[in-house]
Amino acid sequence: MKKSTLPSTSKRLFSFVARPALLTLAVATLAGATPVHAQYGLVMEPVINAVAYDPTDTSWWPLTGFLAEPGQVFTYAAGYPRDPVHDSVNISNDTTNTITGMALRIVGTANATEEPWILNVGARTEATFGDVTGDRRISSDIFHHVRVSRDGKFILLTGGAIPPGGRFTDISLSELTRVRGCRLNSPRIEYVAIESSFLAGNYFPGDVNGDGTVTHADYELSLALARGARAATPCEIAAGDLNNSGGIDMGDIHAIRALIDGKTHKSESDHD
Ligand SMILES: [Ca+2]
Ligand SMILES: [Ca+2]
After folding, report:
1. Which residue of 40, 46, 82, 226 sits 20 to 30 Å from the alpha carbon of 262, by its own alpha carbon?
2. Ligand 1 centroid distance, CA of 98 (Å)
């Protein structure tokens, strides 16, 4: 399978956070309980790199065809074998937002990578986000911070910006890997359903409602989200997923409470 050629700048710029994240992912994958039926896993590596403006290039896709606003979710299909269309078409940020992050979540399976597809949201899949190119990083020359959740299903790329008019690659590398102790039956096909969204603005730990400070309002909001009042947006997860579980849960609630209380951790029982 052909490996994508990445711009050399991506090798310089993008390792310090991605590497621990991937190590965490690898540990989680190896240490996690492997179902008896699992014989293979699909690893996906989103590659979001800058593309220079080229007036002669008319093949790019406008982002608003998928995502018009921060936090809006577009569900698509990707997987193995790779879809060459997505390796050769670039995307233009035709929104009015400066994009400050990308969030992707594996949410199920799919039967094809091009519409019409059937997306089975909630279906079990062994697919995770991780390194496909072999450099032990998630490569991007735009976003310098990468966080992969412990279960490998959620990836958040931040620490960069795509201004209005900016262009970027639409590439998700993928490969099938053998799960420990099992044989890889080849060729196999696996497509997964992926929820994608973009962030605009700055998000820092604990500021779940994005108003610039960490207050009791963030605690209340995160508590509601942890209790399932509604699905957390990628922006809320970016700020509130302090334990890197890929969502807002009770572990985050305690961490946010500790931030509000000005403590690094809570060791005493908590009476509300
Ligand atoms: Ca806040
Ligand atoms: Ca969490």
Report:
1. 226
2. 21
Contacts of 2 (CB under 8 A, 6+ apart): none
Alpha carbon of 250 to ligand 2 centroid (Å)? 7
Q: From the CA of 259, which ligand is nearest?
A: 1
pLDDT tens for each residue of 195-228: 999 999 877 889 998 888 899 999 999 999 999 9
Cα of 154 from ligand 1 centre, angstroms: 23
Report the predicted TM-score, pTM, of the whole model to 2 decimal places: 0.76
Please report, for the chain, the start and end positions of each structural domain, with discontinuous segments joined by +: 9-200, 202-272
| pLDDT surpasses 90 at 169 | yes
Distance CA 260, CA 239 (A): 14
Average pLDDT over residues 169-194: 76
CATH number for domain 202-272, candidates 3.30.470.10, 1.10.630.10, 1.10.3720.10, 1.10.1330.10: 1.10.1330.10
Tell me which ligand sits closest to the C-alpha of residue 213.
Answer: 1
What is the spatial distance between Cα 113 and Cα 199, in angstroms, rounded to a whole number?
24
Residue 29 CB partners (closer than 8 Å, separation 6+) = 41, 128, 130, 152
* Ligand that comes closest to the CA of residue 240: 2
- From the list 3, 165, 177, 180, the residue with the least C-alpha distance to 96 is 165
- C-alpha–C-alpha distance, residues 206 and 186, integer Å: 45
Distance 69 CA to ligand 1 centre (A): 20
pLDDT confidence bin for 18, thresholds 50/70/90: very low
